[in-house]
Amino acid sequence: MRLATALDEIEALEDVRVQANEAYLPVVLLSRVILRLGELPAVTPQVVERLFASDMAYLEDMYMRLNTQENIRLGVVCPHCSGTFEVQVTSLGTTSLGVSALGTTALGTDEE
Hints:
Helix content is 38%, strand content 16%. With 112 residues, it is of the alpha+beta class. It folds into two domains: 6-67, no CATH class; 72-109, no CATH class. A three-stranded antiparallel beta sheet has the order 1-2-3, with no helix packed on it. A hairpin with a 6-residue loop joins strand 1 and strand 2. It is elongated, with a radius of gyration of 17 Å. It starts with 5 loop residues before the first helix and ends with a strand.
């Protein structure tokens, strides 16, 4: 997946399917910015609309993380001590390691 351009978003909004049904916007946007999906030769709106809802949600989340500057806070549980704490996940678009890298920073713990 690549970063979206202003043209991606403008042309997606002008798509007749989006104008008829706003819920189709993520389908058009994702089909424009996903560079490769498995062994498929091309990622078209028809490919994206056939994805499972959970896969679509994952790709929408990745799109938002790539294209926003906001940091996301997540509550997590340590698998070793069962302590709960919050981590801050940085935007994928700001990492120097590429789109699959996630930066996390511990913000605090419930147990001291």
